[in-house]
Amino acid sequence: MNQPLYGVYGASGCGRGIMPLARAQISATGTSLDRLVFIDDKPRPEPLNGHCVYSYAEFLAIPASKRHVVIAIANSVVRESIAERLEQDVVTPWTVAATNVVVMDDVQIGEGAALSPFVTLTSNIRIGRHFHANLYSYVEHDCIIGDFVTFAPGVKCNGNVVIEDYAYIGAGAVIKQGRPGAPLVIGRGAVIGMGAVVTKSVPQNVTVVGNPARVLVK
Ligand code: UDP
User: Fold this and answer.
1) Given this model, what pLDDT does residue 135 score?
2) Is the pTM of this model over 0.85?
């Protein structure tokens, strides 16, 4: 019987950061490493960091008992459109996590997450589908995070914060703790600039920057 096949979708910066974690994860199961490949809509003939780079159609054509894919692309809109394709093609969303990720009590996390080294998720946290938490990010207690949310490296998300779908939190941003029953809310599709210090709720679809973070008027 064919073996399962594993893909890291996106052969650029994000994908090259996730691939070694994926490799460690499947090595632990005894699966042969040639069953782990990159997928990219701009495929290339040469391997990348030791793994073939296939188009999605090529990936689907390889005989496999089951297909697992982590979408390693930071852009949430792209991530969602690829997730829809995977669902149509009965490809299983794959969560890839570094071996040193710390997950404390009562954490629920949706399918297809990518958790980089040194990420910490403390206790009583809910996280949606296809979450990305890049290097050294943390999520503190009682946070609720939606679908297709992206944390760049070093995001400090303190307790009692709600982050709605598609929000992007830039590198090193700090989000102030909310209160039980009165969370600090980052609105759907909002972008938090790198290094921003977010002291109050952020509306949907705006960009905030600075300390204290203010809406960027373009
Ligand atoms: N990509 C893709 N399909 C898409 C959009 C992007 O395969 O619909 C690939 C793109 O060819 C590139 C990677 O995803 O190789 C995204 O790389 P980028 O450097 O833009 O972003 P990052 O790796 O930081 O998420």
Assistant:
1) 98
2) yes
